[in-house]
């Protein structure tokens, strides 16, 4: 494809690209660069049938890699994700697969329910094109599906740093905040997004739907209580939040998020109620003994309280890692605990395992690699 056509497409100047390619094709009906450009324009316009007709006219061997890539996109628009996966797998088996092939494979795998494989594919895409905001967004969505909201949020933030007008990034962050009951914070994110992308229908509709819970709106009791107490915590009204949460718990309105929120309410008191924080986390562990999060939160909390708490903190973080061995965050927390306890050999060995288990595009790869380098020098 000529530099002029490619540049027009990369800059999103679709109308000009269509006109230029159409002109080229009028001069030479077999101009493959123009055919490929018009196929891309057809995909942007959500006209996959027209894109396939144009691709069928591209015969040269040198253009088949791009043809296969675009046929994968055609299959995705047809929601034929099995066929899309087949096209992209052809490309990733090549010596130097394009980042777009890994990205497309990730989209197809996620649609087919292969979440781990989708995340790995998106990590590869990000490793090859770390400055591509859309790749960061798709990796974040895969991490959401793996129930790793913090890692997902990091990718959405990176997406927006690369392209502040990407409405999807604001939408995704707002969804994560809403799931944690932070309704006001979610609204602020959506409002910030609309200042950057004022024409976004996605943000406008989400903002309209993301109203504060009202008396007329039916919610599960634990969700309603979480929303109500979260707003108090956000306003630093910790004692009122604690009263609500503890009364609700006594009356049978119970969930893990509610007990974790109780610890957050203790943190916003002046001074913070450290015994209350620890007690809330202990009760969260008793309530959900097979969930990694309360073990992690209590372990990290105790690490900050001095050396005498280190054995208990390490025990908790080891339990979190046992419950979620595939989650690198649980291992990295344990590495830091080992370091604090001067158990350097164990920290180094575990950090090595973490780095070996991460692909270069993973959101924690750089952090884990730096940590391992430091430990090797100790």
From TrEMBL:
Which sections of the protein are TPR repeats?
Answer: 99-132
For this UniProt record, give its keywords in alphabetical order, as a comma-separated list: TPR repeat
SMART domains of this UniProt entry?
TPR
Q: Which domain of life is it from?
A: Bacteria
Q: Which SUPFAM superfamilies match?
A: TPR-like
Extract the PANTHER family matched here. PTHR44998, UDP-N-ACETYLGLUCOSAMINE--PEPTIDE N-ACETYLGLUCOSAMINYLTRANSFERASE 110 KDA SUBUNIT
The name this protein goes by in its record? Flp pilus assembly protein TadD, contains TPR repeats
Read off the lineage from the record: Bacteria, Pseudomonadati, Myxococcota, Myxococcia, Myxococcales
């Amino acid at each position: 494809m000529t530099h002029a056509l490619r540049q027009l497409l990369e800059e999103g100047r679709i109308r000009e690209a269509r006109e230029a390619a159409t002109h080229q094709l009028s001069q030479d009906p077999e101009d493959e660069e123009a055919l490929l450009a018009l196929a891309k324009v057809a995909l942007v316009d959500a006209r996959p049938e027209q894109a396939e007709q144009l691709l069928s006219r591209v015969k040269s061997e040198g253009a088949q890699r791009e043809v296969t890539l675009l046929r994968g996109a055609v299959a995705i628009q047809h929601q034929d994700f099995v066929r899309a996966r087949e096209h992209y797998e052809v490309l990733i088996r090549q010596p130097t697969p394009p980042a777009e092939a890994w990205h497309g494979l990730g989209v197809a795998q996620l649609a087919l329910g292969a979440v781990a494989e989708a995340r790995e594919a998106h990590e590869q895409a990000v490793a090859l094109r770390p400055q591509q905001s859309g790749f960061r967004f798709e990796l974040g969505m895969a991490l959401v599906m793996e129930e790793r909201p913090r890692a997902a949020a990091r990718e959405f933030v990176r997406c927006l740093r690369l392209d502040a007008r990407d409405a999807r990034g604001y939408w995704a962050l707002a969804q994560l905040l809403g799931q944690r009951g932070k309704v006001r914070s979610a609204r602020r994110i959506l409002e910030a997004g609309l200042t950057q992308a004022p024409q976004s229908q996605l943000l406008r509709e989400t903002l309209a739907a993301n109203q504060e819970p009202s008396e007329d709106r039916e919610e599960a009791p634990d969700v309603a209580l979480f929303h109500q107490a979260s707003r108090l915590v956000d306003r630093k009204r910790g004692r009122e939040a604690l009263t609500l949460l503890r009364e609700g718990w006594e009356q049978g309105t119970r969930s893990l998020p509610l007990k974790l929120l109780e610890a957050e309410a203790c943190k916003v008191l002046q001074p913070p109620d450290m015994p209350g924080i620890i007690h809330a986390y202990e009760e969260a562990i008793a309530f959900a003994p097979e969930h990694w999060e309360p073990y992690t939160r209590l372990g990290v909390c105790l690490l900050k309280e001095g050396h005498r708490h280190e054995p208990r903190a390490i025990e908790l973080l080891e339990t979190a890692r046992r419950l979620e061995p595939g989650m690198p965050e649980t291992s990295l927390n344990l590495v830091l605990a080992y370091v604090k306890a001067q158990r350097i050999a164990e920290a180094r060995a575990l950090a090595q395992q973490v780095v070996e288990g991460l692909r270069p595009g993973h959101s924690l790869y750089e952090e884990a690699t730096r940590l391992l380098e430091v430990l090797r020098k100790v």
